[in-house]
Amino acid sequence: MPIQTILPNTQLADMRHRVESESTAMQIYMNSDQYPLPADNRMLNTLIEIPAHPPELLVGNDRAVEDAENAIKIFEYLGPLNRTQAADPRLWATLSHITFWEYCRKRWPEANKGSGYILEHWFERPGGGLGALRRNAISRLWWAANLTVAPWDSDLQLSHLKSSDRFKFTRILLSQAQIFQDVLEREYGSNLRLRTILLNSLHAYMPKVSNRDKLSKVISMRLLLLLKERHLESLPPLEMEKLVDTLVARAAEQQNTA
Fold it and tell me: What is residue 44's three-state secondary structure?
């Protein structure tokens, strides 16, 4: 199988500097069919084996469905990376600037918003905390799938949530941009069991409210407050599930009666 290659740090630094200092760089991201790498550019080899041909990513009018399908495609293309590989900004910048350049330009077309917008979606924005690598156009898709694929395989206590669709929770996570943000950019989103149970409850109650983004925001705030008082991670799965489900149900009811 072919080996994934990545841009060297020196080239990546030059690209970042160009975005930050040259107004003409915006035109590249808006109008160029491919990123203009220098003729003497040398790529570095990684230990990541990839299929001969990258998947064709979807871009249309249903971003929730397309993001979920694309996340599955990217995860299956790259496989389950180790922590070092997944945290390497060179990998994601390479994929967004070379392999999936056309997709990135179509999915995130508002490059005229400025350098911050480009740094966020084509690179890794410095100082971004938990969300830094999860906002890059390609890494966000891989992370979404990696953190939600068949959670019952990693935690047998979640076997009662098992589905024939191994990416059931990937689809839930990406069904709303607000859910993605509230789950993956919070500390509690790093806990497999809590993350899965929360997504399951949100999936059950989202259809019952008119403002789904508001429900996700409210749950995120209340869960953060609750975690200051209780160690939910130490609860037995069924007790954790009951508590989270009650939290979501009450928030949904309050929203509908407001």
Answer: strand
Q: How large a percentage of the chain has pLDDT more than 70?
A: 96
Count of beta carbons in the 10 Å neighbourhood of residue 30: 13
Half-sphere exposure at residue 44, Cβ-oriented, CA atoms within 13 angstroms: 13
Distance CA 130, CA 52 (A): 32
Residues 176 and 114 in one domain: no
Residue 225 to residues 66, 189, 229, 231, Cα–Cα distance (Å): 33, 14, 7, 11
> What mean pLDDT do residues 204-228 have?
95
Q: Which two tokens stand for residue 45?
A: 């080899």
Q: Which residues span the domain enclosing 41?
A: 1-146
Contact 36, 124 (CB under 8 A): no
Do 14 and 116 belong together in one domain? yes
Cα 219–Cα 248–Cα 144 angle in degrees, nearest 5: 60
Does one domain contain both 243 and 126? no
Residues 164, 142 share a domain: no
Average pLDDT of span 112-136: 79
Q: Is 116 exposed, middle or buried (0-12, 13-18, 19+ CB in 10 A)?
A: exposed
Domain tally, the chain: 2
Beta bridge partners, 5, equal: 45
Q: What is the CA radius of gyration of the chain?
A: 20
Q: Please, what is the Cα angle at 93 between 22 and 110, to 5 degrees?
A: 55
